Amino acid sequence: MIIKDVEFGEVIVRKSPLARGIKFSVSTSGRLAMSVPKYTSDFLVKRFLNSNRKVIREKLPIKNPAEQRARDYQKKQLAKKAREYLPYRLEFWAKKYGYSYDKCRLTHANTRWGSCSSRRTISLNIGLMQVPEELRDYVILHELAHLNHMDHSKAFWAEVGEHDPKYKMHEKKLKLFSPGL
Ligand SMILES: [Zn+2]
Q1: What is the largest CA-CA distance in the chain?
Q2: Mean pLDDT, to the nearest integer, of 27-31?
Q3: CA–CA separation, 61 vs 31, rounded Å?
Q4: Is residue 10 very low, low, confident or very high in pLDDT (cuts 50, 70, 90)?
């Protein structure tokens, strides 16, 4: 559910049976997100928001409504670029080195560039479209190697190194970028 707030713009409210208390975070679009226990009334949500304005203002990088919309637009463009590129790039490397995966999924989490599930689905972050090509390829080769090794063991890194001899440098450089927008 989304509530409109004069100061913070659109606020995303997620009601979850697992939430213990009310927690604030920032969504990838720069909106304020609140996670609240499932049966919290809208009245309580608003009251809690009001009583925490000062903390939110000081601690969280909430964007104003115009910036939130600009983020949405930017994200859409990025997702479009990613759709037209990442699945094909993944396929290219997979074919080249004889990997077979089940599915390619595009994500936009704030924390990870990619992942590989035990069901052989490879997820790639659309934010990869904003990093240099060599780093993008490194992430893809890293996830492909997880198809054979579901850990970060020596054997795993040896396989990554076979396909990307500069993987150590790429891993380091990647830390200069953030998967979020
Ligand atoms: Zn990994």
Answers
A1: 58
A2: 88
A3: 9
A4: very high
| pTM of the entire predicted model | 0.78
Question: Does residue 143 contact residue 124 with C-beta atoms inside 8 Å?
Answer: yes
What is the bridge-based pairing of β-strands 23-26 and 114-116? unpaired
| pLDDT mean over 26-32 | 89
**Which pair of tokens denotes residue 88?**
């094909």
* 159/157 Cα distance (integer angstroms): 5
Give 64-92 pLDDT, tens digit per residue: 889 999 989 999 999 999 999 999 999 99
The CATH fold of domain 75-174: Zincin-like (3.30.2010)
The Å distance, Cα 71 to ligand 1 centre, comes to: 28
Q: How confident is residue 181, by pLDDT bands cut at 50, 70 and 90? A: low
- Centre of ligand 1 to C-alpha 173, Å, is 15
Q: Please give the distance, rounded to the nearest whole angstrom, from the Cα atom of residue 139 to the centre of ligand 1.
A: 9
Question: Residue ranges per domain, the chain?
Answer: 2-63, 75-174
- Phi first, then psi, for residue 77 (nearest 5°) are -65, -40
Query: How many angstroms separate the alpha carbon of residue 149 from the centre of ligand 1?
Result: 9
Dihedral angle computed from the Cα positions of residues 165, 171, 177 and 179, in that order, rounded to the nearest 10 degrees: 100
Please state, in angstroms and rounded to a whole number, the distance separating the CA atoms of residues 37 and 21.
Answer: 6
Cα of 150 to ligand 1 centre, how many Å? 8
